[in-house]
Amino acid sequence: MQSPLAERVRIQVEEEFFSVDKALLVENSEYFRALFQSGMKESTQQEIRIRDLSATGFCIMLKILEGGHPVLSCEENLQAVECAAFLQVQAMAKYLMNSINSDNCIILYQAAAVFGLLDLFHRAALYIRDSYAELEEYLDCLSPDLLDYMESLVPSTLVAVGAHTPTFEFLEDLSRTICYLEEESNTWRTLSCLPLTASTFLAGMATLDNKIYIVGGVYGYNKQVVGQSFCYDVMSNSWSEFPGPQQLRYDITLMAHENYLYAIGGEFEKTPLKSVEKYNLSTSSWSFTSDLPQAAAAAPCAQAMGRIFVCLWKPLDTTIIYEYEPQKDLWAPVSTLNRPQSYGHCMVAHRDNLYIMRNGPFDDFLRCVMDCFNLTTMQWTSLPGQYMNSKGALFTAVIKGDTVYTVNKMLTLMYTIGENTWKFKKEKAGFPRSGSLQTFLLRLPRTDHSIAT
Length: 453
What we know:
There is one protein chain. The protein is of the alpha+beta class. The protein has 3 domains: 1-94, 2-Layer Sandwich (Potassium Channel Kv1.1, Chain A); 100-152, no CATH class; 157-442, 6 Propeller (Neuraminidase), CATH 2.120.10.80. The strands form 9 sheets. Strands 23, 24, 25, 26 and 27 form a 5-stranded antiparallel beta sheet that branches. A 4-stranded antiparallel beta sheet has the order 6-5-4-32, with no helix packed on it. It has a 4-stranded antiparallel beta sheet with strand order 7-8-11-12, with no helix packed on it. The longest helix is centred in the N-terminal third of the chain and has 13 residues, at 74-86. The protein starts with 7 loop residues before the first strand and ends in an 11-residue tail after the last strand.
């Protein structure tokens, strides 16, 4: 909400007029910042006319800057790209990047190329590359240059790692590996071996900028926490270490967002934790943020539309979704669902939907039921049918484009996300390791990883 004392300026775009907080424009738009600080007569005018810009695009910009989350049509996406480029509004460009999906990726790719939004251009190209098989019939509209650039990119690959504790060099466990699924040959192959002192057992793991981060694993009968954290850079095929959180913790959820890693909750000495820490990759330092609303270990988290959500489970089968707002450093309740279950939670995001998966009633706990929460309508929907969850398949779900990958030892199942359903797509080889596992997407360098697992 804007302060009633805030200085406002009247902006005319086409035939429409907008009364806008001047400070909001200066803070978010390079165009207006330069205009109002130029010393020219326009810098002191109370009414300014913007030419060669659509009123729709300007209206969308205001909604985004004021904290809204508009769902845009194809035409609105085009006008939003034009506005973001013309007024140099980084927050709007970032919003568009977080909104890329199979319906708008091609128009955003073309528009970003025309208006010079390079980050949006690259992100849309990556999305199209990942969904090439599903989008191929619609790519005839792209120019040869745009096709060439998109096809020059490396698609993302499904990567998995099992739960392993540290070992000694003379007892090296050859199964302590990170593996990837080569879909063409339907074979899991070794990408890298874990460092001897790294633990993935009850560790938090996340990917950021095509790197895997491991924080907070344990070793030994008493669950001693591994103090160091580890980073794997797939492009250089190298490992590095960085400090662990200030509060020793295990069974944490690790979330990567922009230039930060968030270590959320977890346990220490068998006591659940409420505290949350973030690691700044630029300064290589940890700092505490606002606590979770309740103590939680292995709390399900997901990012939808560039926003961070956590799913917490209270007694009496009450699930509450909270959103973490980094700018305000607070956890805001979003919605509550009452649903009987035996144990377990998993949450993944697709477009503006959060999918909450849980084991069914006690007499059928190997089957997984699913509910969908839509962030635009703020409504819950129960997905029809049940999904097999033997050995934890759905609890390792990752999404690429409109495709969900779920993995266990027996098989890898792929689903296509449709309206109110996950439709079976195809089956691939299971991950050849026992125990729990975590899965990710990485873009592997164009080299021959020839070691099959």
